[in-house]
Specification:
Shape: elongated
Helix content: 25-40%
Number of helices: 9
Number of strands: 21
Largest sheet: 9 strands, mixed
Strand content: 15-25%
Strand order of the largest sheet: 1-5-2-6-8-11-12-15-16
């Protein structure tokens, strides 16, 4: 069976043996674009990466680029692509010290969250990065994002990786992937992690927040969980939401899980039709997870009267999880926890540091 990618091997430095080995997984996105002679944007040939980013020669690294044959705009990313990314990490896990995933920014937080759940027992860095401007643009943020992501992915302390989890590096900040959210489409500071501290900040030096980083797990063994469920949906509550809309979503054939975005600390309409609709869905074994529409804070069901009904019918509190992590976690849980009790248990506790 033909692989969905081609491998490009790059030696960045001297005749000495490389100090670390890093794999770059290029899925597509703005970072990997350059201008051709007609000033049109075309995909970059990573065979020429040292010409475009000559400062990489300062690293003594073995770099391999796995470039997807069919590059994807991140708006078209699907769980099939997540399987391809996770599969690459699985296939080359023993050979490389760290992994970089170049990905479009629009759905990067979704993919980083999904991959964090799929890579159970991960003990190496998997760093997502991208850019707001193509690498071929004069003012591009692509070079700095890529160079620093590579440095982070290759750094060790006492012969162990400093980072041993799925992260996003963007605009000088290293964030936990399943705590991140895209918040900006024009400025370079595209991602925030409102409910969890920054893992590292890159200035003159890279300052790591060791208290926030996931500790290295001595006994961990990588297990890759692919083929996650897609029978899930997101319902965002808004003033004037109609019964027909809610009923329509809850009556989707095969629906197994629903993330409901509520107000503030988990508050929603208390109208009887709304609560009854959710209750009927729960009685049909549809999991419903309550997350907040707010950037910061968390769901505390029962704090106000407007969330007590949700709690009483069995809606699950998502605490401070992001919507991106909530929907991908639900996909993962529905795939790999095989009883309702296990699924509920997994949803209310942190599996990869995605919630408190």
């Amino acid at each position: 069976m033909e692989k969905p990618y081609k491998l490009i091997h790059i030696e960045t430095a001297t005749p000495k043996a490389p100090e670390s080995a890093v794999m770059i997984i290029y899925t597509g996105g703005t970072l990997g674009m350059v201008y051709n002679e007609d000033q049109a944007l075309v995909p970059f040939d990573f065979q020429n990466i040292l010409d475009e980013v000559p400062s990489l020669k300062n690293f003594n690294l073995k770099i391999t680029v796995a470039s997807f044959h069919n590059l994807i705009d991140s708006s078209n990313v699907s769980p099939k692509h997540w399987d391809d990314i996770a599969g690459l990490v699985e296939d080359y896990y023993e050979e490389y010290d760290g992994f970089i995933v170049i990905h479009g920014t629009d759905t990067m937080s979704y993919t980083a969250s999904a991959i964090s759940f799929m890579l159970e027992g991960l003990n190496k860095p998997v760093i997502f990065t991208g850019a707001q401007l193509p690498i071929g643009a004069a003012r591009s943020d692509a070079r700095e994002n890529l160079i620093t992501a590579i440095e982070i992915a290759s750094q060790k302390l006492n012969h162990r990786p400093i980072v041993s989890e799925v992260c996003i590096y963007f605009d000088n900040l290293l964030l936990r992937g399943n705590r991140s959210k895209k918040v900006e489409s024009v400025q370079f500071d595209a991602f925030q992690s409102e409910n969890y501290p920054v893992l590292a900040e890159a200035g003159v030096i890279i300052e790591y927040n060791f208290s926030a980083l996931r500790p290295f797990q001595t006994e961990a063994e990588l297990k890759v969980r692919k083929n996650i469920q897609q029978e899930v949906a997101i319902l965002k509550v808004f003033p004037g939401i109609s019964q027909s809309l809610v009923d329509g979503i809850l009556s989707i054939e095969g629906l197994r899980g629903l993330v409901i975005e509520t107000y503030g600390s988990g508050n929603a309409p208390t109208e009887k039709w709304f609560i009854d609709a959710l209750n009927r869905a729960i009685e049909k074994d549809i999991l419903i997870l309550n997350v907040s529409q707010c950037m910061g804070g968390k769901v505390i069901q029962g704090r106000y009267q407007t969330s007590m009904d949700l709690q009483s019918i069995g809606v699950i509190s998502g605490s401070d999880i992001t919507t991106e992590a909530a929907i991908t976690k639900m996909m993962y849980v529905l795939s790999h926890a095989h009883t309702k009790e296990m699924q509920q248990s997994y949803l209310i506790k942190p599996l990869r540091g995605e919630m408190e």
